[in-house]
Every structure is written in C-alpha cells, then in structure tokens.
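Section 5.1 Outputs to date
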Amino acid sequence: MKPLKHLRWWIVWTLFLSTVINYIDRQTLSVLAPMITKEFHRSNADYSRIVSAFQFAYAGMWLVGGVLIDVIGTRLGLTLAMIWWSVASMLPSLAHSVFSFSLFRFLLGVGEGCNWPGASKTVAEWFPARERGVAVAVFDSGSSIGGFVAPPFVAFVAYAFSWRVAFLAAGLLGFLWLSLWLSLYHPIQSHPRLSEQERALIESGREAPVAPSKRGAGRWLGLLTQPNVWGIVLGRSLTDPIWWFYVFWLPKYLSDARGFDLKHIGIFAGIPYLASDIGNFTGGFASGFLIKRGMPVVRARKWVCVLSSLPILAGIPAALTGSTYSALAFISLATWGYASWSTMGLTFPSDLFPQDVVASVTGLSGLGAAGLSAVSTLAIGPLVDTYSYFPVFVAAATVPLLATAAVLILIRAPQKAGGRN
C-alpha cells in the first residue's frame, strides 16, 4: 500500500474530529438546558445534579479508560468508546425526570472519558517532542470547535423538530466518524501507509524514554510517588473546573442573567469556544517557538502556563460589566487563556513519561480534574440559586493561579533531557 504523506497529521486531525463530536454530544444538554428545565420545572440545583452525574462518570473513566487504552491499544479503545458514547448521547431523547437525565448523562461520561487519554497516547507515539504541543493543540481544539458548532446546530434541530430529536442527531455523528478512524489508524509499528522517512523523523525526535522502568502493576503504582505526576494532576484539577463552568453553565447564564432566548444562545454562545480554539494553537505554537529557539521543552511549557494564566482573570470583569457583549468579550478572553494553559497540561505527560503509561498519567490527571469539577458543579447550582453567578466567576478567574504554582513547583524535566526545566 502506498505511503500517505504526513500520516501523523492525518491521524491527529481524525482525533480532532472525534473531539468535535465529543463536545457536540456533551453540549447538547447545555444548549437545551433553559428549554428543558422550564418544561420540567427544574431548579439550578436539579441541573447541577444532572451535570455532575456526567462528570463523576467522566472522572472515573479518565483513569480507567487511560489504563484500558494502554492495555488494549488506541485503535480498539477509541472505537469502543465512540460506539458507547454515541448511543448514550441519543438516550436523553427518552428522558422525563432528573433521574433519567442523570442516568443517561452518566453513561455518556463513561464513554467520553476515553477520548483524551487515547488522543494523548497517540501524540506520544506519533510525534517528536518539538511537534507535540501543536499536535495536542490540534486534537484539543476540537473541544472548542465542538463548543462553537453545538449551539447553532442543536438550536436549529430543536427549533425545526424538537429537543428530543436534537439528542438523536448529535449521537449519529459518531457513527460517521468510525469509518474514517478504522481506515486511517493502525499502530505505528505495523501501519501499512507509514513511510520510512516519517518513521525516522518521529523516532529521532523523541526526548522521553520509550520503555518503562517497571513492568506489570508496578509501573502504574509507581506513578503515584512521582512529583511530576502530582504537578500534572494538580495543574489540571485546578484549571478544568473553570472550563466545565463555561461549558455547562454559559447558556444558562446567558438565559438567566442576560435574558437570552434559545435563538440568541444559538447565535452567541459559541463565541467563547471559538476564542478557546485560538488559545489551543496559541499555546501549542508558543511552546514550539520557544523550543525551536533552544529553550528546554519543559521550561517552555511552564512559561506558556504562566503567561496563559493572566487572561483567565478576565472572568472577574465579565461578571461585573453591565454590557452583555462586553461580558462575552471578557469570557472569550478567559477561555482563550484557559485553552492555551490546557494545551500545556495535556502535553506534559508525553514530555515526561514512557509511551506505555502516557494514557494512564493523562487519565489520572483527568480523574482529579473531572472529579473536582463534578464537586464544584454540585456547588454551583445552589450557589447561583441562593446568591448569584458573581462568586463563581471570581473563583473561575483566580483558582488557575494555584494550578500554575503547582506546575512551577512540582514538575521537573526527566534526566534524559539533561535535568533542565
């Protein structure tokens, strides 16, 4: 079979599409939340419980899914995950209660939790160190594009048919993706369309060790004693809840606090996600720029984290301004900074760990991030019902400073990189 030029980039853009679908599926409920909560007379606290059911399942599957993908491989792991979450995405079309919505969103979280560990493992296998930041930015930007596309897509289907049909339409997208994935992705060792030139480029650019120091269960248990693991875990755990707030609560905030109807949510709610897409590439290209000019890999990633934490503070004026469009502009600035930071958080595992535990490290960080996000989501609903959105915006703006501090203090370059950081 004839080699496919730049095969690694074809693969990462396929992962970009899976991430787009991942976010359309999870955003369907967020876009429809004002309509559904009104129809069923549900409070913000009820909505918090539904959302947190997804997040608790998602948290657990980041870890379990990461280990599973390390064991069975990326091709089969992501295939099974896509089938599962696409079916689960359709099930809320049958829901009538808080319990049924919560159950179906829990099932969605089980499937979707495999996407990022699998994608991160693929980047570790298929990309040299200098390209990983951009490769992660490519697949992770699918979350922003999915968030941008979901409001108009879901609102259109809901207006044209019903909110139940919107869940069905979103779920069908995953089955279209499967044929592309199965035809394009194979392990790097046996891929029939990988040229020897590209294989040599990938192998010559690796800076992390390719073989573990331990085998069996010890290679996973030993991760818990490493400061680098905890730097990654704390970094993501203290930034991801901010993203989840904007993902699950922005449409309701625009409805509750800014008076938007479903039509205006469909038009405007995607703007902050488009800004975050730019942020993904800002972080990826900025770290790559620094690395090409001689800065050690891990040090470059840290600098991007520091600079990216500053625009996240724009969440505070977003809550204070009286102008809806100024609020959207400030929120967009905050999501731009978050996405740049997040790209580094997702790149650290492939920089610091052997390939056969990258998905596990990514999954462990996702467990902490999604678990803390689920707990914070449970608090947001009652907090908004009792007070307002303002304290939530303040927390979303300032907590990432702690995440950056954790990265700076705990993460150090591996010895193979000469001990530089």
